[in-house]
Amino acid sequence: MRSLKLGLAATGIIFALSAAAQADCVKVGTVGEAPTHAIAELFAKNGLKNIIYGQGREGRGPVHLKCEDGAATTTCRASQMACKVSEPKTCLGAWLCL
User: What domain range includes position 32?
Assistant: First the structure.
């Protein structure tokens, strides 16, 4: 009976810690728009990296990218899960983080 109680307590602690670790993760997204597909993709991906860094987060898992071709421009949306690892950084927009 005692080992059952200890096992249940350990399981509860593991669930509590995993929930606390996941609670500080968010999905971050950016948009890049440019005349060509390659440039729009570059803007979306680099903007995503800089936004995540600026928030003091670290990307987890794959980067999801979806691009749509318009009449004159291509718009790409990039998103990724990111978890808090440090304090937010000083950034001027999505492109320049100090």
Answer: 25-97
